[in-house]
Amino acid sequence: MVGRKRRGFGFLIYLSLICCIAGSFLGDLIKPYLPDALNKSFNIGFSPFPLDLKVVKFTLGFSLQLNVVSILGLLVAIILYTKFL
Hints:
Blueprint: H1 9-29, E1 41-52, E2 57-67, H2 68-84
Antiparallel strand pairs: 1-2
Helix pairs in contact: 1-2
């Protein structure tokens, strides 16, 4: 389309992160009302490990805790990005 500006990949990452956080927050709020099958959450990532460079010492690690509602938030973000932006 003429005059329509496409957002970049960074905006998709930002939108996905915001929707996952909102979905996770919403999932925690409605957790008492959901059946046990929808209350499941799981972790993705790796445990922290030290990286010693003799001048600088880093501890690197990464962990995501996802539940069903945060995954739905991620799907909403992808749909919003592809359809409306």
